[in-house]
Structures are given as C-alpha cells and as structure tokens.
C-alpha cells in the first residue's frame, strides 16, 4: 500500500498506521507499507474499541459512529484495483471510488455546513478505498482532552500539521512525549486544573513541552471541538495556531521575569463545588494565542474571579512586549503597577471595594482623573492616604489613557484580593501588602 497524503486528516491516518505497520516508510507526503489494511486494522482494534470490546472507544466514536459494527468497515479493507477513475485525494487511478464522507475527512465541508455535517454525512468528491482507510484510522493519532456536561460529552482534539507528512511525523513525536493513556485525556500537562477546552488545552500543552524541550516546532496546530450526546455529534469549533516564534518569545520573557505560566493560567479557573469552570482560562488562552491585548477584558474578569491572579505582572509584561504586538513598554507597566497598588492598598485598609468599581467604570480620561482625585480627597486624612504618582498621570493622554487605566484597575484589584486572602488566612489580622 502506497498513499499520497493531501490534508491533515489523512496525515493523522498515516501517523496512526505507523504504529501498526512496522515496515512503514514515510517520505515527503507519501507513506508506504507492505502490511495489508486487514492486518493493520486487526492490530489497531484494541485501541479502536471501548473497554467492553464494542465499537467504539469514546475518543474515536464521533468519527466512526455511523459504522456501528466492525463488519461495516470491511468494504474499505479490500485491495484497490487499477482502473480509469481518479481519486480526488491521492490521484491514483482505480476501478471504483467511494463518496467523500465524514469518514475520509470530517473537515471536507464548508464551515457553514459544519454543524449539520454529521447528519448529511457526505461532501463533494470521490475517493479511493485506501484514502478511506486512512480516515478510519485518523482518530487514533489525535491528542484529546474532554469533559462531560449533562448528556453531552465534549471532546477537544489536537493535531500538529507540518509542511509535509514527514515534518508532521517529527512534530507528532515531540508532542507524544507528554501523552499518557487515559479516559478523559491522553495528554499530561503541568496544571493544577486539567484543561478541557481547545485553547487552554493547546497552550498548556505548549507550555509543558516548552519547559521540557525549550522548543516548539513550527507547524499548524489544529484544534477541533466536538460535542457528542450519544445520538448526534456536533462540531463546535475548528481553529488553528501557527505563531510559534512569538509564543516562545512570550514564554521566555515570562520565565526570565520569574513568572510561572501554568500558575498564571490556573488563576482563571473558577471552583464552584463540586464543579470546576475553566471558561475564563479558555478565554485568556485564546487572547494569548491570538496575541490580542488582554487588559480591557482582564479588568472585568478580575472582578469575577474574587481571587488574586498569580504572576500577573510577569504575564502583563510578556504579552505587551512580544514582537509584533503594539504594547506598552515595561517602564510604563511599572508605573501602572505602582499607582494601582497604592489604590489597592488604600481600598483594602478602608475596606471599600466599591471604590474599585467606580475606577473601573470611568468612561473618559476626564472621568478617570476626577475619580482619582476624589479618592485622594476621600482618604486624605488617613494614615494610608492615596497619592497617585505624577509620572503615572503624565502617561495619560486623550489617545492613550484606556490601557494604563485598565492596568491601574487590574493591579489595584489584584493587590486588594491578595491582601484580603492573606488576611483571611491570618484570622482577620491585617498583613502588609
Ligand atoms: Zn486515494
């Protein structure tokens, strides 16, 4: 069997086959093996089937669902015969072709058809039996994390696509280094709370591997999220990430400042006993992986968290100073932090959290300056009065006040929450921040 792979789904199939075909050769985009499809499937069955030996293991079920008996796959195991028809994937000339279906490539459909694809089951194009066989195997090469929500079983799949099959194979082996068999996930990442959604899974995989290997290979990292309720499967998202160099720079900057990326991300997990909600960490991971400014949104998130964010300063500097991001320099961030912590400390002493809302809700530069001078006035007679440093006021202008203001709020709230937590741990005794 010799197959030319043309898309990431086929690449995954080829990588999966590698494990069950000892003589496999992968060169460029082509794989070649003398093992028959029947032999390969027979060796792969223990991984394809569920614990009771029935079709299918939960992580491959969404892709094989319509073949509810193993025998139904048999027609794809026949050797293909030469003929006058051309496979639209590998371009080989064969006697018979099959419809391009979910099995061959669940992504061979337009984005707008994504959600209903599983019910329609086919796309345009016809392909050969070998290409279909790759599709049967693809699920086994995908990394995944998952969670259950009521009747829904929601799975995130990850897969690296290199510039050809050979490169994909190398990157896959790099990722495989942290894989571990498991029911809910086959990736072992460094995090207090396990990731279950696409962006948080991807970013924590990157961080774990970067800490281990000091490197992230260039590739297009695919993420897919599928929801399965037993009867129907729905694609929730399909994304990709490739700005590997920028991400490594960000992780290095954070590390050089003494930050702990994993602990920073864990700060966004909300524990609602007995459940753990990672939606905010997912949102943060998405902002980081798309190199979007985090401050505007973060000033609202931190009010919802009610817990201080660890290594906040280090990550604010790291996200702002990545090449290609039009961010603030470290000196300006330092000024915002200084001003914010003065406010946070005073508000903690006064036990007046509401002041932080007024600050956050400032809608204009004028409004912000007024709120700050109100605060200075309000606490003027106290030991811990607020004096906003002049240098901070000087960086504010009509065009550039929003981000420093957001940082002021973020650092103020973070300081307040850190001191509140410290004091509650010390039986109400106040701890200098
Ligand atoms: Zn083909």
What brief labels describe this structure?
433 residues; alpha+beta; 3 domains; four-stranded antiparallel beta sheet; three-stranded antiparallel beta sheet; elongated; disordered C terminus; binds zinc ion
Q: Enumerate the strands of the largest sheet in spatial order, edge to edge or round the barrel.
A: 8-9-10-11
Oligomer: single chain
Structural category is alpha+beta
Strand content: 15-25%
What is the total number of structural domains? Answer: 3
Instruction: Indicate the radius of gyration in whole angstroms.
Output: 27 Å
Major beta-sheet overview = 4 strands, antiparallel
- How would you state the average pLDDT, rounded? 92
Written description of the protein model:
With 433 residues, this protein is an alpha+beta fold. The chain folds into 3 domains: 2-141, no CATH class; 145-320, no CATH class; 330-425. The chain contains 17 helices and 13 strands. It has helices at residues 8-20, 37-48, 61-64, 114-120, 129-138, 165-176, 198-213, 244-256, 261-266, 279-289, 295-305, 312-320, 330-350, 354-360, 365-378, 390-395, 402-425, and strands at residues 2-4, 25-27, 30-32, 82-86, 93-94, 98-101, 122-127, 143-149, 152-161, 220-228, 233-241, 270-272, 275-277. Strand 12 and strand 13 form a beta hairpin. Helix 11 packs parallel to helix 17 (402-425) and helix 13 packs across helix 17 (402-425). It is elongated and about 90 Å long. Mean pLDDT is 92; it is low at 116-121 and 429-433. Zinc ion (ZN) binds at residues 87, 89-90, 92, 127-128, 130-131.
